[in-house]
Amino acid sequence: MKQSLSRRDVLRHSATLAAVAAMQPALGFSTGAMSFAEYRSYDALGLAQLVDKGDVSALELLEIAIARTAAVNPGINCVVEELYDSARSAVRAGLPRGPFTGVPFLLKDLGMMLQGTVTTNGSRFYQDAHADYTSTVVERYQRAGLVIFGKTASPEFGGTGTTESMLFGDTRNPWDLSRSAGGSSGGSAAAVAAGILPMANGTDGGGSIRIPASCCGLFGMKPSRGRVPSGPKELSSIMSVIHAISRSVRDSAALLDASRGPEPGQTTIAPFPDGDYQAAVARAPKALRIGLIGTPITYSRVDAECSKAANNAAKLCEGLGHHVSEIQLPVDPPEFFASTRIINGVATVQRVASREQQLGRDVTENDLEPIIWQRYQSSRQYTAQQLWDAQHRIEITARKIALLQQDYDVLLSPTLATPPVKLGALSLNQDNARYEKEAISVSAFTMLYNATGQPAMSLPLHWTPEGLPVGVMFAGRYGEETLLYQLAGQLEQASPWFDKLPPA
Question: Considering its fold, how many domains does the chain have in total?
Answer without folding.
Answer: 1
